[in-house]
Amino acid sequence: MYWEEGKQEQILTVPDDVVDISYRIQCRALPVDHAEALAEALLAKLDWLAADPQAGVHSIHVADSGNGWMRPDSPNDLIYPSRRTRLTLRVPQARVDEALQLPGTVLDVAGNSLEIGEASVRPLSTLTTLFARYVVAEDGGDEGVFLESMATELGDLGIRPRKMMCGISKTIRYGDAKIRTRSLMLADLSVDDSIRLQQQGLGPYRHLGCGLFIPHKDIKQVRAAASTETK
After folding, report:
1. Would the CA dihedral through 110, 113, 119, 125 be positive or negative?
2. pTM for the complete prediction?
3. Residue 69 binned pLDDT confidence (cut-offs 50, 70, 90)
4. Any idea where the domains of the chain sit in the sequence?
């Protein structure tokens, strides 16, 4: 863990050069590890998703538990999206019109039908605690080395992190390879830095959901999420 107290700066405007597009979906089930299959299905419609450095595909996430159901650990097991579950893409403004053509499309995601419905465009957040479920850990996953590597990458973006915490490592299958990742939380960012990090992300494989940061209102919630990530 890396933790430094500091003062928080604020700005009020949010640039719209990168946005999130959230889609309603109809999908009975998906594999737990669906990142590659989802990316392949989307790339058939939006072939720039993997090449554009400001584009990415958020993994489809469902609640870890509810009504006695517990999220399975095996990557081949299934998760069951609810009517509130969304597919979300992060796209630069120049690609928004293309991404808004997806509603009505039916994707085949590892043999599972996913119908894309109504879309809404959302600006990035001004919240200053951000969380990424998956960031590539190219160093092999050692916590201390990972945090040092992230601090270096953030510095390259002009961001000096005050508080960082990573979670347990997790692998994502990609072809014959297994990509080792860790979850990562940053807190007490300036609003400028928060927006910059959401725009730029960290590390490779954004089309697989890696390096994409989302806002969190409560550090306790982020800590709980980081500590319960499965291997």
Report:
1. negative
2. 0.85
3. very low
4. 18-123, 125-227
SS3 214: strand
Q: Which fold has domain 18-123?
A: Alpha-Beta Plaits (3.30.70)
**CB-based contacts of 119, cutoff 8 Å, min separation 6:** 21, 22, 23, 24, 99, 100, 102, 103
Q: What average pLDDT is seen over the chain?
A: 86
- How is residue 126 written in tokens? 């001004």
The DSSP bridge pattern shows strands 2-3 and 163-174 to be antiparallel
Check if 18-123 and 125-227 are the same fold.
yes
- Cα angle, residue 93 at apex, residues 130 and 37 outer, rounded to 5°: 70
Two tokens, residue 6: 């500091």
**Res 214 pLDDT > 90:** yes
Residue whose token pair is 């499965």: 230
pLDDT of residue 14 exceeding 60, the answer is: yes
Side-chain-side CA neighbours of residue 105 (13 Å): 18
**Share above pLDDT 70 across residues of the chain, in percent, rounded to a whole number:** 82
